[in-house]
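Morning F.,

Quick status update on the modeling queue. The single chain you submitted on Monday has been processed. Sequence for confirmation:
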Amino acid sequence: MTAIREASGALDEMLGHAAQRYEEQVGHAVDNLTTLMEPVIMSVLGVVIGGLIIAMYLPIFKMGSVV
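Structure tokens below.
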């Protein structure tokens, strides 16, 4: 295909179309990946923040039960 376009003098046009198609495919792949990663990131952040809150309040509750 490249050889035919090179012989006809339209190689730059064909390569431009191919580059545009690949950019669209990469864009869609990145969009799908970010859509899939978003819930995972939110879950991890929830676990980390929940763990920090529990780690902060656990000593306070233990001190209350000692008295």
